Amino acid sequence: MTLFKLAFRNLIGAGLRTWLNVVVLSFSFVVIIWMQGVLKGMNNQAVTSLVDAEYAGGQYWHKSYDPYDPLSLQDAHGRPPEELTDMIEKGRATPVLIIQGTAYPEGRMTTLLIKGIDPDQKIISLPSYFLKEETEELPAVIGNRMSESTGLKAGDTVTLRWRDANGTFDARDALIVQVMRTTVQSIDQGQIWIPLEKLRELSNMKEEATLLVVDKNILDPPKASGWEFKSLDFLIKDITQLVKTKTSGSSIFYVILLLLAMLAIFDTQILSIFRRKKEIGTLMAMGFTRAKVIRLFTIEGAMHAVLAALVAALYGIPFLTWFAKTGWPLPESMDSYGFAIGEKIFPVYSAGLVVGTTLLILVVTTLVSFLPTRKIAKLKPTDALRGKTS
Amino acid sequence: MQNSALIKTQDLVKIYPVGWKELVALDHVSLEFKTGEFAGLVGPSGSGKTTLLNIVGSLDTPTKGDAVVMGEKISSLSHKQAAALRKKHIGFIFQTFNLLPVYNVYENVEVSLLLLGLTHEERKKKVMQALDWVRLADRAKSRPAQLSGGQCQRVAIARAVVKEPAIILADEPTANLDAENSYNILETMVKLNEELDTTFIFATHDEKVIRYLRRKITLFDGRVAKDEQVIPHRKGENP
Description:
- Chain A has 390 residues and is α+β, with helices and mostly antiparallel strands.
- Chain A contains eleven helices and eleven strands.
- In chain A, helix 7 packs parallel to helix 10.
- A six-stranded mixed sheet of chain B has the order 6-7-8-3-9-10, sandwiched between helices. In chain B, strands 2-1-4-5 form a four-stranded antiparallel sheet, covered by helices on one side.
- Chain B is globular.
């Protein structure tokens, strides 16, 4: 307690030097929490968007389905087994049929995936109800990215061509009934959504599907022969990995920031020990052991982090709260970031993040404060009193 | 009063390496100090006064021989034991006061007591008593920078005496003070010596201090040239 009191007095007594270090360190606190919060928010938003719009509670894949291999699509379809039919009938799973096709928007040729979905499904947030529209052509929904890359807008007609189950080419005009705004690229770019039954009929794949999306509330999905259940953890594995990669990339920035703050603390400690040799000698003359003096200086250094946490709380809490409420509008270019984010990022600051960052900075500051004080262990009291280096 | 040997040095030798050569700072010094002495080590610069004071104060160790302070052999003390000896039994007064600039007068004096495990109330009582002795109770909240040299040295004295040590070692305590302040300091120290029976050992070549001594030990080239009991002549008294 005594040393804490002395350290605190010394720290406050050092005036401007202390406050400069404290401000720099507090900046590290706020930036680290902010950056981590943004990344966590980004991760959460990406996962939430994907779950809502595409994965729901997981998916059953036809045994031949491989989303990374478009050539496998011609074989990746079949009738869902009996185990799953009951779920489909009760609206707890929705089938999706995927076939490869070609579109001819404005006379150009674009390869795409034609996806059939039940217009009445409520399992994913894709606005499939627009597909109920009675039209002469095939009603179709595309995403905003697809709309942008093909130049198709709501009300436009586009010719679609595909091969049916027997390998015969067929073609129909589709009417874009809705352009959906979505942050999830994987239900948007290079694909067009049409009613499931129409697609089954046109492709000669009656009652067949490529995959089944199950409801979020299905906790124990049954086994189905010829179909593999892919859990949410499996489905979001890529996105989690991507976020991890981006997190480690971004951490370089705050490591640099932390290093700068630590350099300031280290420098202050070195300077303190050099300038306060007489004081060290006096303390030793009064009966302080070297270990106690080392502890005093280390506590003094570490207290920078405590004060910085308080200062950071002063301006950081209002700033971070405001930021979490208003979010960070993303520029258009962020769309190519690699995963669904949203128009704004809303940072998420968990208690673990705040406590973890505080502990990290406290531990690093203590360590950095301790390193220069080892010099004191070699200092003779008589030399210290004369202000001389041993 | 002056009966038991508080400090005893036996053939004390201190040699400092200076480049390739050696400097003999103390050359077989054998002395004895008793409780309540008001003694001074006098002599020119480089005669070994401060070195002797440092060894007696357990801030340094002898090269040969030994010093026994309060029954403890200085040469065999660990850093921790030496610190414990200083903490409990020895007070220091320095030429340059060595006050801690960021603390106020009260806190500077209190620092000495912080290691003794006293309660806040006990510390407060002792600090105020020490400040009363040096007549600085009214400046308790001032910072060293706001005090004169004499006042600073009085704070240093209060800091040294507040824990009521058996020995106070004062290294050139008046060197940075004018005559008036020097006499005030010396009067304070004499009063403390008489009231608390504290042993004072000075390292000085200031005539004003020498006049107050009851024992004068003259050092020359690290040797005891003369060790004599003298009659002190305090301010206003003619020698």
